[in-house]
Amino acid sequence: DVKVTQSSRYLVKRTGEKVFLECVQDMDHENMFWYRQDPGLGLRLIYFSYDVKMKEKGDIPEGYSVSREKKERFSLILESASTNQTSMYLCASSSGTRGTQYFGPGTRLLVL
Amino acid sequence: GEDVEQSLFLSVREGDSSVINCTYTDSSSTYLYWYKQEPGAGLQLLTYIFSNMDMKQDQRLTVLLNKKDKHLSLRIADTQTGDSAIYFCAEIPSGNTPLVFGKGTRLSVIA
User: Fold this and answer.
1) Is the pLDDT of residue A17 over 70?
2) Which of A58, A95, B35, B98 is the most buried (most CB within 10 A)?
3) What part of B 5-24 touches A (C-beta under 8 Å)?
4) A73, A91 Cβ separation under 8 angstroms
């Protein structure tokens, strides 16, 4: 079974803090994705990566950066957290150019 | 551009059938997916259909694809309270691009 894990289920941070969200997959997938989910807006793609050290901007990259130093790990970084980044963050991975995406359990981030 | 549309809410009685509808725009999509999200959890793959198929059945789930109208539906037979969740439709557009998701349909099952 594919397993995608995220470092925290719940996180509370203060405005201006640097925040790291970690995602690890154990199926040797090339592709990894970060989404945020907000009520009424569905899933919005922040960043994705098709290979180690590669990254592509999604639909809403502003205020975020990512790091992919190893194939199994994809990190989302909030350089200076703001209250409008309070959200549910979902990581996913897939294989190949049109592979099924498998999701982690999500991290619910609250920025005060 | 790519867009996937779904109605936001559906309410059904326990034991009835549920039908969740989705329309998509990219006629070259090869795979179309249904994901389920239970409260507080990530998305779980329910089923998918390849674009050269019209129908796929998996136990209580039936997926129908109308390529001409770019319409996808998910039917859940004998809906149970455990089926209460948000259901997302998704497509892979042409080229090497990520999945495009609809906003999700919240299914409420009334006992």
Assistant:
1) yes
2) B35
3) 8
4) no
d(CA A19, CA B61) in angstroms, rounded, equals 40
> Rounded to 5 degrees, what angle do the CA atoms A63, A68, A74 make?
75
Pairing assessment for the beta strands B9-13 and B105-110 based on DSSP bridges: parallel
- In this complex, do B103 and A105 lie within 8 Å of one another by their Cβ atoms? no
Of A63, A94, A38, the closest CA to residue B99 belongs to: A94
CA B107 to chain A, closest CA, distance in angstroms equals: 14
CA nearest neighbour of B75 among B90, B55, B45: B55
- CA distances in angstroms from A84 to A88, A91, A111, B41, B60, listed in the order given: 12, 19, 8, 21, 40
pLDDT tens sequence across B51-68: 888 999 999 999 999 988
Q: Euclidean distance between the first and final Cα of chain B, in Å?
A: 40
